[in-house]
Amino acid sequence: MLQEGKAEKAAEAIKAMLSPNALVIRAGEQQSIPADELVPGDIVLLKSGDKVPADLRLITCTNLQVQEAMLTGESVPVSKVLSPAPAAASLGDRKCMCYSATAVTSGQATAVVVATGDSAEIGQINRMVNTVDNMR
């Protein structure tokens, strides 16, 4: 029972880091939707102060910097670029990507959703935490 409580607390902490809403372009119109309604292929608009609502591949960006410390351990915001990373690049070296639950510290961008929920990097971490706690 104690292990289940730890797993639940970890899951709740991760959930608290997630963005509740996302600004998207659907049917040619900008609209704000609940982030849990995002699907791969959605186009998301990001600006300074936003939490990233899903794992995203950048389409355009202007002076975009993202705080990724929770995922990479980097203590300073990461400058993002459009050029693709090699397939074997580590998470911190994927400068053309933004990840769910990280924070935009400056700039703006347009990006396409590539992963949501448990398929996102933060979702995979959540699954690992639950698996480790359940093994104890």
Can you describe what's shown?
Strands 1, 2, 3, 4, 5, 6 and 7 form a seven-stranded antiparallel β-sheet that branches. Helix 1 runs antiparallel to helix 3. This protein has helices at 2-17, 69-72, 121-135, and strands spanning 21-26, 29-34, 43-47, 55-67, 78-79, 97-98, 103-115. It contains three helices and seven strands. The protein is an alpha+beta fold and 136 residues long. The radius of gyration is 15 Å and the shape is globular. Strand 1 (21-26) and strand 2 (29-34) form a beta hairpin.
Give helix % range. 25-40%
Beta fraction: 25-35%
Counting copies of identical and different chains, the oligomeric state is single chain
Mean pLDDT: 85
Low-confidence stretches: none
Largest sheet: 7 strands, antiparallel
State the distance separating the first and last CA atoms. Answer: 11 Å
Overall geometric form: globular
Separate helix tally:
3
E-strand count? 7
Class of secondary structure makeup = alpha+beta
Gyration radius over CA:
15 Å
Quick summary of this structure?
The chain is of the alpha+beta class and about 140 residues long. The protein has three helices and seven strands, in the order H-E-E-E-E-H-E-E-E-H.
Task: Label this structure with key terms.
136 residues; alpha+beta; seven-stranded antiparallel beta sheet; 3 helices; 7 strands; 26% helix
